[in-house]
Amino acid sequence: MLYVIGIISASLAAVAYGMSTVLRALGARRVAQAAREEGIDDTNPAGGPTLQSTMSTLVDPSFILGTVMVVVGFAGGAIAARFLPLFLSQTIVSANLVVTALLGTIMLNIALHTRDWVAIWLVVLSLCLLGFASSPAPGEGKEDHIHWGLFIATLVVCVLALVAVYKMGQNGAILGGAMSGLLFGMIAIAVRILDGVHPFDPIVLLLDPAAWTIAVAGAVGFFVQTVALQLGAVNGVTAALVVGETAGPSLVGVLFLGDTAKAGLGWLAIVGFIGAVIGAVLVAWYGSGDPDHFGEAPPLKGGWRRGREEPSDTDESGADTALADTGTRAAAGDELSENRFSDTELTIAEHNLDSDLGLDDHRSTNGHNSPR
Fold first, then answer.
1. Mean pLDDT of the chain
2. CA nearest 115: which of 278, 274, 258, 240?
3. pLDDT at residue number 60
4. In angstroms, rounded to a whole number, what is the distance separating the alpha carbons of residues 325 and 334?
5. 369 in the Ramachandran plot: left (φ > 0), alpha (ψ -120 to 50) or beta?
């Protein structure tokens, strides 16, 4: 029964996290568009977002709703981490990549190519293989050195993540996504080994370094993911996050917490795990572009090519021709104006000369005596 509850909770977390990511990406886009309309430069010297722009993103209504969904996802993920092997619970939660991709097409106008659907369904099918091959979690990992080691590792990852998103500019988007995913994975490990839960003892719980890990990793991971969504495309950031929150905890669960597969199905669990990671990496690879908050970037290349389309030669030549025509017209206009100016000057000069020679009176007299 607990195994089924864990599966349902992990699935709920996947949906909630997927909705959260898209809503927060929408908030980041709205803040970037507002800053551009107001003529505000919201980037730091390294090309990353300023702290002020990140704070503005945090109070956007869409972002706040996304934050509520994070809380729902955390609750579901925490229950799943207690009742399931980490390689299963985290891989199910990583299905939020599918939710993010689907909602992104509706709410963010993100076009998905065939390669994206192939990678997404590779993740889904791999999750099914993992679920079939896994066995219930044995509940190991109560040693103190595991709790302290996890907390120290969390502090190190927090520092590296913050440096990545604020010092690497656009290049820090994917790394920031992976680091935030690793921090979320550490939360799952901490929840799994947390003392003072059963039986409930608040003193033991608060003094456990695993509880500190949950607080620190949750806050920093949330912040780093927010900045990464400002820097990069939502699908690419999410896919990198999925790899981070799946691979790290799964490895720790197998090596230190006694997570195993069903007898004779270890190979199937390995195939499912590798397939899920490869699918997520493919989505990250092809989606690791700029966020295109303003809808001005060229479309992404089709097939299995990476990057955005280049302007066609016809468009470029047409633009050059139009530019040349504009220049020719401008030059002709300047020449005509110059000629007109010269004719005016010549008329004034002739009039002045006639006045000096007294020819004006002579012309006037001849004009009066001439027959009509």
1. 78
2. 278
3. 92
4. 14
5. alpha
Whole-Å CA distances, 226 to 54, 149, 178, 253, 311: 7, 27, 12, 27, 32
Beta bridge partners of residue 43, listed in sequence order: 49
Q: Which two tokens stand for residue 45?
A: 């010297």
Residues in the chain: 372
Q: Which pLDDT tens digit goes with each residue over 355-369?
A: 655 555 544 445 444
User: What are the distances in angstroms from CA 333 to CA 277, 324, 342, 369?
Assistant: 64, 14, 14, 44
- Of the listed ranges 33-37, 123-127, 228-232, 295-299, the least confidently predicted one is 295-299
Is the previous residue joined to 199 through a cis bond, with omega within 30 degrees of 0? yes
Q: What is the pLDDT of residue 70?
A: 93
How sure is the predictor about 314, in pLDDT bands with cuts at 50, 70 and 90? very low
pLDDT, one tens digit per residue, over 285-313 is 766 555 555 555 555 555 555 555 565 55
